[in-house]
What does this fold into?
Amino acid sequence: FRLGPKASDRRACGLQIRWADVQTLTAEPDVVTAYAQMAVANPAFARFTRVHVDQDGNANYQDLHLAWVGGARVIKLTPR
It folds into this structure.
């Protein structure tokens, strides 16, 4: 999978193409765990995905489950 802008933009900005390995998470435990980590680390993500995080920093399991039922999936990109 290639990450980066199109060739004309790349030359104009001096950017390079970066390759990445792609992993798609679709199983409920994987998606719920990843979404919980992202919601705790990024309040904007939590609001956008409607995952409530309590004052102790724990994401609401019911919200996480509903996100998965609603079609939430996780795509992990690992730069090479």
